[in-house]
Amino acid sequence: MILAAALLLASQAPASVEEPGVSKPPPGFTALFNGQDLDGWRGRPQLEPGSEASYKKKHRATKQAEWDADRDLHWRVENGELVNDGQGVFLTTAKDYADFDLRLEYKTVALADSGIYLRGVPQVQIWDWTEAGGKWKHGADKGSGGLWNNQKYPRFPLKKMDRPFGKWNSLRILMTGARVSVWMNDELTVPHVPLENYFDRARPVPASGPIQLQTHGGEIRWRNIFLKPLAAEESNAILAANQAKEFKSVFNGKDFVGWCGPTDGYEVVNGALRCKPGHGGTIYTDGIYKDFVARLQFKLPAGGNNGLAIRYPGHGNTAYEGMCELQVLDNTAKKYAGLKPHQYHGSAYGMVPAARGFQRPVGEWNFQEVTVKGNRIIVELNGFFILDTDLGEMNGTLDGKDHPGLKNAKGHFGFAGHNDPVEFKAVSIRSLD
Fold first, then answer.
1. How far apart are CA 322 and CA 12, in angstroms?
2. Is 53 exposed, middle or buried (0-12, 13-18, 19+ CB in 10 A)?
3. Which CATH number describes the domain made up of 5-238?
4. What is the value of pTM for the model shown?
5. CATH 2.60.120.560 residue ranges in the chain?
6. Could you read off the pLDDT of 178-213 as tens digits, one per residue?
7. What CATH class does 247-431 carry?
């Protein structure tokens, strides 16, 4: 997988590590470690994300006291460095983070095996990369800096960039949604690869969670731990930059040239295509697509409802006459609390539900990518894969209705408005035909 976003981000790459010292955070970054004590960090073992929320208040306080006591046995601060003896609970940020740019430096010893948990999920791997370390059979010869727990997506770094034991290594970890990019010692080793949810591979990683420094088998030292939370606009730009040259714009941001259907029910406002309040209908590209990837950004008003028309024939209700309608919906609206799972955002309407919990707040722009290949549809929302299904393998539909358009081998791409001022921009398509 090639990361075109590397061009966008090259100017932000971390500087080479210099042996002496503790640095100040780069502009826009905050120091997670103050160089003096463990303020802002707690002890925590490996736990399934969200499990602590089920603890009763008293039980949670008791467990945290136990974990912090263990932390204090195995973690210390020495000369502005965090030092772990290779045992004990993981050092865990007190705060949770969504999308972020993380910079840090580490130094370890022979036979050590460690890593960095992202939103509480393992991990960016750190280990003894030498043959003497005894883990070449597990891929240690490929070096540190990979997503070792991945199974479906790449797990090893592009190249081995580890410095000799006793030398400091730098890591930059950029996380947007589930997608992770890693620079190790100034070299890109993980290019925009999805991190799989080790605890439940059927679901995306959590939308937010803590940073954890793993302990495992040998001393490791950390310093200059800096983090910058990413705003929605920054994350969207990073996601859009990936393979951008392979996509062709289908909306010029000015008018409806190249679009068909009831365009009088829509308007162009500040470069975005918007359904007029109280209007709707399905507008669609004049181009016809078989297999394709569509990429766009959308913004929902409170309670907003729209849809993406997939292989639409140019007439009828796209949820039935098209291959499907992929729902575009404010999942947080109270009026939608009683919907069926297959009616929420990203779902193949009436047929297959999408995972929820990955939309940005109402009023912010979301980034979405939809891949249609044969009967298979993949929906990636803000860097999270919320739907991956083969509609040809369904045993009936969840709404119990006939969907004749399922058999459409090709059709138009469009928007199915439902009276709400939902906005779309940066609409582009990559044909896979």
1. 44
2. exposed
3. 2.60.120.560
4. 0.93
5. 5-238, 247-431
6. 999 999 999 999 999 999 999 999 999 999 999 999
7. mainly beta
